[in-house]
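TASK: fixed-backbone design
INPUT:
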């Protein structure tokens, strides 16, 4: 009985939400100028559902009644009314820079509160970048003090913000993931060939960007290509994902060790496995209270082996015990377009994921609240404190303003 009542209530509630949102749109209030409501009921039944040769992991979904242009014109897509509280009254999206075909804006976005700089890295395995085996990806930064209110008033502010090189000494080889760590930047380096091992590096956030390697092996064995890194806010331990993108992108040997999540206590030097059972473990972050960890699996993308629908394009959520161990793996979300790559949380515990069409936003129960729709792959992005976000769309660098505030500003641990 109880069960039957619950299931009959569910459509009513979502119907009410849809009605509320539809009313808001009709009246023109509540829905901010750069936002639009996407009614999921409008595409539950398409009638003519395209075959997989036409609609698959690499295609954008254009809901009925919209176009690619209309989706980008109002890029804040409201799937649930909870999203209104995340974007606030006047969210904005601004293009800051294009880099042609060279993917200069890939991952490892880190905001440094003391200087208001945001660092990020070039794609380490993309043939168009020429990086990987023969050349390392580079690190760059922008100064957010240059990104003023009149920049966000424009959709295209190309030329108004300078992008600077940040050359670390010694060099950080093929950086891919990064996070704030004790007022420094902690980079995950993917390595290069068989002689430059993947490593964790810490870099000073101030010129001349001196760096130190803090981990490069597990009992004498190399990692595959360390992809992303996050700090457990309750213990201060470093957690990182290690996967084989270096191999399938032609710059590391074939799988050398299980692809999994590791933890590292820098104080004691102890390295231990935190979780396995992945195809391509990729992004990692913690909830603001440290009680949960999110890990993405981008198995659909297999580098030179192509793409494969039989593998995950998923976000998993774990409980994190007080001792730092992971338990209760739960499948949190599955992504239709592209894969979920970098993940971050806001102060309220909502989860943001960089995907094939932009940034998806989920509440802690895994309900899709909305998207910041770019119309192409966002491998990563980062909050820059309260109400600001930098979005890395490979060859395009965007700046967004919204109401939400990112967790983990950086000085905390
Ligand atoms: C996926 O869809 C795209 C675009 O329609 C198409 O070009 C591609 O061949 C499809 N892939 C597969 C494996 O069918
Ligand atoms: C790296 O350089 C070598 C020697 O010049 C060349 O044979 C090889 O194709 C290059 N590999 C990549 C991935 O660019
Ligand atoms: C943005 O503005 C720049 C400089 O005016 C222009 O070259 C570029 O084509 C514009 N990009 C887009 C996507 O509109
Ligand atoms: C950078 O150099 C300073 C001065 O020698 C040192 O205190 C700091 O630990 C170094 N930082 C890193 C990340 O190596
Ligand atoms: C990390 O190591 C230090 C020093 O041994 C220890 O005090 C601390 O409890 C360890 N942290 C965790 C989460 O085990
Ligand atoms: C996808 O992976 C499955 C399982 O390994 C394999 O059987 C299949 O041939 C792969 N498909 C493609 C298109 O590579």
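OUTPUT:
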């Amino acid at each position: 009985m109880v069960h039957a009542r619950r299931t009959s209530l569910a459509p009513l509630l979502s119907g009410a939400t849809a009605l509320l949102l539809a009313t808001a749109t009709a009246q023109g209030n509540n829905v901010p100028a750069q936002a639009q409501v996407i009614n999921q009921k409008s595409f539950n039944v398409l009638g003519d559902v395209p075959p997989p040769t036409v609609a698959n992991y690499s295609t954008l979904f254009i809901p009925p009644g919209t176009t690619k242009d209309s989706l980008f014109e109002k890029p804040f897509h409201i799937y649930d009314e909870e999203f209104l509280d995340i974007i606030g009254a006047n969210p904005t999206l601004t293009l800051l820079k294009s880099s042609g075909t060279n993917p200069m804006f890939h991952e490892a976005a880190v905001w440094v509160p003391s200087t208001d700089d945001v660092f990020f890295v070039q794609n380490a395995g993309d043939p168009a970048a020429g990086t990987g085996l023969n050349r390392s990806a580079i690190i760059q930064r922008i100064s957010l003090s240059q990104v003023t209110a009149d920049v966000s008033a424009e959709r295209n502010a190309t030329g108004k913000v300078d992008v600077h090189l940040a050359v670390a000494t010694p060099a950080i080889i093929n950086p891919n993931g990064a996070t704030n760590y004790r007022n420094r930047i902690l980079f995950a380096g993917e390595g290069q060939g068989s002689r430059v091992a993947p490593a964790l590096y810490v870099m000073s956030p101030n010129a001349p960007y001196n760096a130190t390697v803090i981990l490069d092996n597990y009992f004498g064995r190399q990692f595959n290509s360390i992809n992303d890194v996050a700090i457990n806010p309750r213990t201060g331990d470093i957690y990182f994902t290690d996967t084989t993108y270096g191999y399938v992108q032609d710059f590391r040997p074939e799988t050398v060790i299980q692809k999994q999540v590791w933890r590292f206590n820098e104080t004691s030097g102890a390295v231990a496995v935190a979780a396995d059972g992945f195809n391509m473990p990729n992004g990692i972050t913690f909830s603001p209270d440290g009680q949960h960890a999110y890990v993405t699996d981008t198995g659909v993308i297999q580098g030179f082996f192509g793409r494969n629908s039989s593998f995950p394009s998923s976000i998993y959520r774990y409980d994190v015990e007080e001792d730092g161990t992971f338990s209760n793996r739960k499948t949190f979300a599955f992504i239709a377009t592209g894969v979920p790559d970098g993940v971050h949380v806001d102060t309220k515990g909502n989860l943001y994921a960089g995907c094939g069409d932009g940034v998806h936003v989920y509440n802690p129960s895994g309900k899709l609240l909305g998207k910041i729709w770019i119309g192409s792959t966002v491998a990563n992005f980062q909050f820059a404190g309260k109400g600001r976000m930098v979005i890395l769309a490979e060859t395009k660098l965007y700046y967004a303003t919204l109401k939400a505030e990112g967790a983990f500003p950086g000085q905390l641990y």
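COMMENT: The two ends are 49 Å apart (CA to CA).
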